[in-house]
Amino acid sequence: MNAQVDLHVVEGFLYQEAGYLDRPDLESWLALYTDDGTYWMPASEDQPDPFNHISHFYDDRVLMEIRKRNFVHPRAASKDSAVRCSHLIGNIRHAGSSEQGDLIITSNFQVVMFYREEQRVFAGTYEHHLVPSGDSFMIRHKKVNLINPEAAHKSIIIYL
After folding, report:
1. Is 117 left (phi over 0), alpha (psi -120 to 50) or beta?
2. Sheet harboring 55-60: ordered strands across?
3. Pick the CATH number of 7-146 from 3.10.450.50, 3.30.190.20, 3.40.50.720, 3.20.20.80
4. How far is CA 96 from CA 84, 127, 128, in A?
5. How far is CA 124 from the centre of its chain?
C-alpha cells in the first residue's frame, strides 16, 4: 500500500474494533481478523518475538475462537460478573508496510476495565497490521505493548 493512506478510514476501523471490545462483542470483533490473524501481548519490553519468549497472549485465530467460546459460555466464570470496558485510542499513525504488504498502523491506548467490583487501567501502544478489504480493513496481526508488561497482572478477562 502506498503512502497515501486515509487515516480517517483507519481511525474509523480502529474505533469500530474498540467498540466491539467495549460491549464486549467478541463475535463481531473476531470477524475483523483474517483467517491467519494473530493477537500478541508481549510479557517484556522490546520482546523480539512470541516464539522464543513467554507472552501474556499469543493467539492465532483458533485460540481466539476458543477464548471467545469460553467467554460467552453460559457456565463460564466470566458470566458471574459483567465486564465493562472503555477503550481510548489516540496518536494513530501510518508506520509503513509489513513484509506481506500489510499497512502498519501504530497508536496509543488506554483501557479502563471494570470486572468483579474492581476497576483496572491498562495503557500502552498498539501495532495493527491491516489488510485492505473493500472500503475497510481486516486485521492480520495486532500487537499490544503494555507500558508495564513485566508487572504482575491479575487475569486479563478480555482482549485489550
Report:
1. left
2. 55-60, 33-42, 136-146, 118-133, 103-115, 84-97
3. 3.10.450.50
4. 33, 11, 11
5. 11
Residue 9 DSSP symbol = H
β-sheet bridge partners, residue 126: 107, 144
Asked if pLDDT for residue 149 goes beyond 60, the answer is yes
Indicate the helix (H) or strand (E) that contains 53: none
**CB 26 within 8 Å of CB 68:** yes
Q: How close are the terminal C-alpha atoms of the chain, in Å? A: 27
Task: Assess whether pLDDT exceeds 50 at residue 82.
Answer: yes
Q: What is the pTM of this model?
A: 0.91
Residue 143: pLDDT above 90?
A: yes
What share of the chain has pLDDT > 70, as a percent?
Answer: 92
Instruction: Give the DSSP H/E element, type plus range, for residue 8.
Output: helix 7-22
